[in-house]
Specification:
CATH superfamily: Glucose Permease (Domain IIA)
Radius of gyration: 19 Å
CATH topology: Glucose Permease (Domain IIA)
Distance between the termini: 33 Å
Structural class: alpha+beta
Shape: globular
Order of helices and strands: EHEEEEEEEEEEEH
Largest sheet: 8 strands, antiparallel
Bound molecules: zinc ion
CATH class: Mainly Beta
Length: 200
């Protein structure tokens, strides 16, 4: 199956930084270098403080809390594997700089579009924005702990999420999914009517 990500916020076109050296604000490059990264390891969306942030895919909340820089974040991992470089991997999406009042808990199952936090400037952030990251993961065969498939890629395992956007807002995900389901059931009814009409 192909990984599809729903935009976790509206106005996704106005990212202030994308993934990688060419899309990183030049004045921030030294900061990422200090953090041991080649450049920016995700996509930044400037947002007013308190803007709801939504899950970009179905999955399990595997982290909800504060990091050592005082940044609040949520991490969600898919429970289904996806095609990745001729392999099957799980996808972990990362949401950072949130307000501390995070509405989801570790272990909760979320659907694409569920509110998982609110935008803020917590941690290493100059203005209120969402940092969105994506890491392909697998479970170790010996100890069954999760590890990053791309850990040594210069971004601590993060990859560019941009190729995986499906073009729709997470806010609309459940409506779109239910309309698609209705269309499939209409098609299935048409097929059975046609079979009846053909005497099969
Ligand atoms: Zn960022």
């Amino acid at each position: 199956m192909k990984l599809e990500l729903w935009y976790p916020v509206k106005k996704p076109g106005i990212a202030s930084q994308g993934f990688g050296p060419s899309k990183t604000a030049p004045d921030l490059l030294p900061m990422y270098k200090k953090l041991g990264l080649l450049a920016h390891n995700g996509i930044d969306y400037p947002l007013p403080r308190g803007t709801p942030i939504r899950a970009a895919h179905n999955g399990l909340v595997v982290y909800a809390g504060m990091d050592s820089n005082g940044g609040w974040g949520v991490v969600i991992r898919t429970q289904e594997p996806f095609d990745y470089n001729n392999d099957l991997v799980f996808a972990k999406s990362i949401y950072w700089h949130l307000l501390p009042n995070i509405p989801v808990k570790v272990g909760a199952q979320v659907k694409a579009g569920d509110i998982i936090g609110y935008a803020d400037t917590t941690g290493l952030a100059t203005g209120s924005h969402l940092h969105f990251g994506l890491k392909p993961q697998l479970k170790g065969e010996n100890d069954w702990t999760w590890y990053n498939v791309e850990q040594n890629n210069g971004y601590n395992g993060s990859i560019d999420p941009a190729p995986y956007w499906n073009g729709y807002y997470a806010e609309d995900a459940q409506t779109i999914i239910s309309i698609m389901g209705q269309q499939i059931s209409i098609l299935q009814k048409l097929v059975s009517l046609m079979k009846l009409a053909l005497g099969k």
